[in-house]
Amino acid sequence: MSVIAVMGAGKIGEALLSGLLHGGRRPGDLLFTERHPERAAELTSRYGVEAVEVDEAAKRADVLVVAVKPQDIDPVLVELAPLLGPSSLVVSLCAGLPTALYERRLADGVPVVRVMPNTPMVVGEAMSAISPGRYATAEHLALVEELLACVGKVVRVPESQQDAVTALSGSGPAYFFFLVEAMIDAGILLGLPRAVAEKLIIQSAVGASKMLADTGEHPVTLREAVTSPAGTTINAIRELENHGVRAALIAAIEAARDRSVELGKAHEDQPDKR
Ligand SMILES: NC(=O)C1=CN([C@@H]2O[C@H](COP(=O)(O)OP(=O)(O)OC[C@H]3O[C@@H](n4cnc5c(N)ncnc54)[C@H](OP(=O)(O)O)[C@@H]3O)[C@@H](O)[C@H]2O)C=CC1
Ligand SMILES: O=C(O)[C@@H]1CCC=N1
């Protein structure tokens, strides 16, 4: 089985470690790098996974998963450049960063797969989209797909769609959490105890998600089934439309896509390997 090293065990890096362990990977097949010793010790005691230095990760791992913030990528690439060759596999989870950035900065032939996952990985319900760089083969892509299938669903997309994917499903869980938060606030306004409002809304979100996933029905059909003639729901829908919620969501997701593009361009002034 491949050894996987996660570089940068923050929110998504930890979600990946924990998701892979839940999905049946053994702690001995996983490694991570982390710059704060206390955080490294905490993760090792929680998951039984070894923290290593970058050179050790590059030596021992078949797959190096880069999970640092896009703003932190430059020193990571400088560190990795002398350590990796065509037999390595780099998997980038970083929003906005194109595979071409890695290819410019690492040795010729180092295969890179760009992935946009999301945090439901911690409960085995990630949505990940994967795209190969110029040196990644069908086998590399299949390996990454198999790895991510342990922690949720996987789709293959052309890399040109990754900024849109990032805005839609990478950030997507945050939009749902935001809606849930706002709906709980509405319950408080209507005089419900907070614990009751939370229970009502969270279970409604779980039920609605399950209907979307299990029935195969279009969201419009499912919404229409809730919306009785001259009933309560249509009054709420009219207010949502009056307040431009649909347009706000479209504009929000477009802004997230634009930021992803911007994050990718921020490294263009760094020197290439030659
Ligand atoms: N959070 C999410 O929902 C998603 C995030 N992503 C992507 O995943 C990446 C990580 O995001 P997220 O987990 O939210 O961010 P975090 O800041 O939580 O995690 C990044 C981690 O990388 C560490 N780090 C930075 N530089 C190094 C280094 N040189 N060596 C080792 N560790 C390092 C950071 O340490 P320190 O604390 O010292 O900064 C931090 O622990 C980003 O590129 C993001 O675009 C993708 C999909 C979803
Ligand atoms: O907010 C971000 O930049 C990261 C990428 C997608 C989700 N979180």
UniProtKB/TrEMBL annotation:
Keyword Cytoplasm included in the entry's annotation: yes
Superkingdom field: Bacteria
Domain Pyrroline-5-carboxylate reductase dimerisation: 159-263
EC number from the UniProt entry: 1.5.1.2
Pathway involvement of the protein, from the record: Amino-acid biosynthesis; L-proline biosynthesis; L-proline from L-glutamate 5-semialdehyde: step 1/1
Pfam families on file: F420_oxidored, P5CR_dimer
InterPro entries: 6-PGluconate_DH-like_C_sf (IPR008927), NAD(P)-bd_dom_sf (IPR036291), P5C_Rdtase_cat_N (IPR028939), P5CR-like_CS (IPR053790), P5CR_dimer (IPR029036), Pyrroline-COOH_reductase (IPR000304)
Enzyme class: oxidoreductase
Keyword NADP: yes
Predominant location: cytoplasm
Keywords: Amino-acid biosynthesis, Cytoplasm, NADP, Oxidoreductase, Proline biosynthesis
Protein's cellular compartments: Cytoplasm
Domain Pyrroline-5-carboxylate reductase catalytic N-terminal: 4-96
Catalysed reaction equations from the record: L-proline + NAD(+) = (S)-1-pyrroline-5-carboxylate + NADH + 2 H(+); L-proline + NADP(+) = (S)-1-pyrroline-5-carboxylate + NADPH + 2 H(+)
Family of this protein: Belongs to the pyrroline-5-carboxylate reductase family.
Function field: Catalyzes the reduction of 1-pyrroline-5-carboxylate (PCA) to L-proline.
Protein name stated in the entry: Pyrroline-5-carboxylate reductase
Species per Swiss-Prot/TrEMBL record: Amycolatopsis minnesotensis
